[in-house]
């Protein structure tokens, strides 16, 4: 028998979960945008419902709305979520934030930090347990989130670090590719060739890194022949030791901002 999952919020991440879950579960969706609702119903054959119906019908509730909209949602559902595990994918909102809304009831809350590749089923999500989330609840959350990629269980104190490393991580990759492409064009390559060379190099290198027994540093050393072209490029990247320092500084800025948002 298919289990019913309720999803509040049908945006990009909500759709990613719907895409992964709709064939094996009954999905109830609450979404304010009427056009978005029509699209989700047509594409995934989900049941669109008001918030009270979604909460009532669901065995598991996924909160996929923006952090700034969460208080409004919780005010509407706090009287009718007794006993239902809650999975939140809202950035910056702690499990304690949710537990306070259900004061007096031991509501299971699992906090998640997915990333953008979840949209194609290749994301990675950091998850942590709230005060009342059991091992079974965490296992269930992992199973659900496995439909959009891999999961890593961490302590909640590490979620800000997860946000900085993998949550924001795709933007770092996109920025590097953006600049890589611009540099390729500056060397005289046309847009089509630059894109093909950069994208395929990126994908091939990522697959090699994942499949190889060697570390990133070891693989880099294998490409970097003494006195060769790669070494010339590496010297520029590591000039004055700024490259690693810049990355560390950027990740710390993201981590600090994540902490600020959770207060």
Structure overview:
It is a single chain. By secondary structure, the chain is of the alpha/beta class. The chain folds into 2 domains: 4-162, 3-Layer(aba) Sandwich (Rossmann fold); 169-261, ProC C-terminal domain-like (ProC C-terminal domain-like fold, Orthogonal Bundle). The chain is 53% helix and 14% strand. Strands 3-2-1-4-5-6-7-8 form an 8-stranded mixed sheet, sandwiched between helices. Helix 7 crosses helix 12 and helix 8 crosses helix 9. The longest helix has 21 residues, at 191-211. The protein is elongated. The two termini are 41 Å apart.
Tell me the number of helical segments per DSSP (H or I, 4 or more residues long): 12
Tell me the CATH topology of the largest domain: Rossmann fold
In percent terms, what proportion of residues is strand? 5-15%
How many beta-strand runs?
8
- What sort of overall outline do the alpha carbons produce when their principal axes are compared? elongated
* Main sheet specs: 8 strands, mixed
């Amino acid at each position: 028998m298919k289990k019913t999952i309720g999803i509040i919020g049908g945006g990009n991440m909500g759709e990613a979960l719907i895409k992964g879950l709709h064939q094996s579960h009954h999905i109830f969706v609450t979404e304010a945008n009427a056009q978005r609702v029509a699209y989700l119903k047509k594409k995934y054959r989900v049941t669109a419902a008001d918030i009270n119906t979604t909460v009532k019908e669901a065995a598991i509730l996924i909160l996929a709305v923006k952090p700034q909209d969460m208080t409004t949602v919780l005010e509407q559902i706090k009287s009718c979520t007794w006993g239902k595990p809650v999975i939140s994918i809202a950035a910056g909102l702690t499990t304690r934030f949710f537990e306070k809304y259900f004061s007096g009831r031991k509501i299971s809350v699992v906090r998640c930090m997915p990333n953008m590749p979840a949209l194609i089923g290749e994301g990675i999500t950091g998850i942590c347990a709230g005060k009342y989330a059991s091992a079974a609840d965490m296992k269930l959350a992992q199973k659900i989130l496995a439909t959009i990629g891999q999961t890593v269980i961490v302590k909640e104190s590490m979620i800000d670090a997860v946000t900085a490393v993998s949550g924001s991580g795709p933007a770092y990759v996109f920025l590097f590719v953006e600049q890589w492409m611009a540099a390729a064009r500056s060397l005289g390559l046309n847009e089509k060739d630059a894109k093909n060379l950069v994208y395929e190099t990126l994908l091939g290198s990522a697959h090699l890194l994942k499949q190889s027994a060697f570390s990133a540093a070891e693989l880099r050393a294998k490409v970097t022949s003494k006195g060769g072209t790669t070494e010339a490029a590496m010297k520029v990247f590591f000039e004055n030791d700024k490259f690693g320092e810049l990355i560390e500084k950027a990740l710390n800025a993201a981590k600090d901002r994540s902490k600020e948002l959770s207060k």
